[in-house]
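User: quick one, fold this
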Amino acid sequence: MAASRTRIRIDVAYDGTEFTGWAKQPGLRTCQGLLESALETVVREPAPVTVAGRTDAGVHALGQVAHFDAPEGIADIDRLPHRLNSLMRASDIAVLRASVAPEGFDARFSATSRRYRYRLQLDTRNPLAKDAAHWRRELALHAMQDTAELLTGLHDFAAFCKPREGATTIRELREFSWRFIQTDGPGRILEAHVLADAFCHSMVRSLVGACVAVGEGRLGLAAAESLLQERRRSSAIPLMPANGLTLMEVGYPDDADLAAQAERTKARRTPDDVEPRSRYHAEQPSQSTGDQQ
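Assistant:
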């Protein structure tokens, strides 16, 4: 008979600058690799970790969530973050919290949302702002916000994603907004907040890239919206640098709905689920489509 297990939720933060992404890769420094090595020492057996969002190389996180299944009766869970951080001996990754997960919890499939932040540093480069991508050209904030609003909704974001075999590119983009923020040091910071039920590979950096292209005047609003009709990665969308992106938060339902949410997530969406609308063309039919990159 298989030994009983206890599912443990862990909350993690990291500076992605020196990591080759989250996912473990032979011979490379990754967040998953460091964490699983430390966990194996603590629980004295391999401890595979499931994560809410597999971030790319250079991407940061303040609110990453993961889980692993530990032997029944694992002791001192409250001290687990301290033990793991001591074993990892790294200043750029930290386990913030650890707790026994509610029944039905799955860090990846039970999640109802992921929130990301993207920062662009304009004008003078601040060498301490490692969580902001430097951008030399002037950007029109109002045009970037208009683009963000056009892209919000339930759509097939194939034009904004690197394809993965067998994976859907239909996502519900719930919030997308831009603003200038005040920070210490030289230069202005332009910040985007992006919330969706989930994101496909490179989607956030491409959404930001589309806004930047419109903000620079290289892409028109109607052309940006028409990208939602494309069914493969578009060359009109620049992929923005990874260092401006930070995973801020992963949302989950009430404990009673965790298992059901996991099953809903695993049910693949179809094109029939996509919103059949074109807000920009409906509201401003005479506007120029602009030049594509």
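User: anything notable?
Assistant: The longest strand covers residues 60-71.
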